[in-house]
Amino acid sequence: MTMPHRIDGAADLLILCDHASNGVPAGIDLGIDPMLLNKHIAIDIGAGAVSEAMATLLDAPAILATVSRLVIDLNREPDSAGLIPLVSDGHAIPGNQAADRTDRIARFHAPYHAAIASAIRACRPRLLVSVHSFTQRLERHDGPDRPWEIGILYNRDARAARRAIAAFTAAGVVTGDNEPYSGRILNATMNRHAEANGIPYIGIEIRNDLIGNPAGVAHWAEICSQIVSSVRDHLAEGAGREP
Question: What keywords are assigned to this protein (predicted)?
Fold first, then answer.
């Protein structure tokens, strides 16, 4: 069993990072060139560092994955075909062909989501924040560069997302509304822990060329923290007006 990295904090929000790590536990051989572990297919570049910086700036608890999504994608449902990828962005992952799905869920997926559920029960956060990063373009597909600096993802519950989109846009950030991916399709962690519990959330995607170094991480963590704080405060004010 591999547990996620937990950061303590006093704020009434919870930061999550599903793809913070490119770790491959002992006993698992993906059968790939090790250099691929430094690519986006293995880790959301910069997302873990931004999550940690935001946790510090906001004094917020955070839960970060400690295993690569090439081992198991924690932002997928257990019955998803992409849970244990056989191919990612054109790269074959031959070591996953004979993977024991039940074992990997028990060792990695279940403990991660159990830790999130436990944290929510313990503190009932006012807001969940999920941090990811995305590439300027898909490596194996032709197409235009992705222009967004930030993307905000959401599914049915847009309470926090709509306000975050407006705030990022007002701050001069090129912001995608359910771009570059739609939260109506890729939103497993937030569907499970936010929407299912009625907790507002912000799914933040940051273009990874902007957070590939410490200066970029610090810059975007500051911007994201300010907007997350403002959204959280707005939610608190709204709750205070309820009869």
Answer: Hydrolase
The rounded distance, in Å, linking the Cα atoms of 160 and 61 is 19
Q: Please, are residues 153 and 39 in contact by the beta-carbon 8 Å criterion? A: no
Q: What is the pLDDT of residues 97-113, one digit of tens each?
A: 999 999 999 999 999 99
For each of the domains in the chain, give its residue range(s) and CATH number, in order of start.
5-241 (3.40.630.40)
pTM summary value: 0.94
- Cα–Cα distance, 109 to 209 (Å, whole number): 28
The pLDDT, as a whole number, for residue 142 is 61
Residue 211 C-alpha from the chain's centroid: 14
Tens of pLDDT, residues 202-237: 999 999 999 999 999 999 999 999 999 999 999 888
| C-alpha span between 97 and 74 (Å, rounded) | 18
Residue 213 has what pLDDT? 97
- Please report where in the chains the tokens 């994608």 appear, as a residue: 73
Q: Are 65 and 19 in contact (CB under 8 A)?
A: yes
CB 67 within 8 A of CB 2: yes
**Residue whose structure tokens are 């880790």:** 43
- In degrees, to the nearest 5, what angle opens at C-alpha 208 toward C-alphas 134 and 7? 95
Q: Which residues contact 168 (CB under 8 A, 6 or more apart)?
A: 150, 152, 175, 223, 227
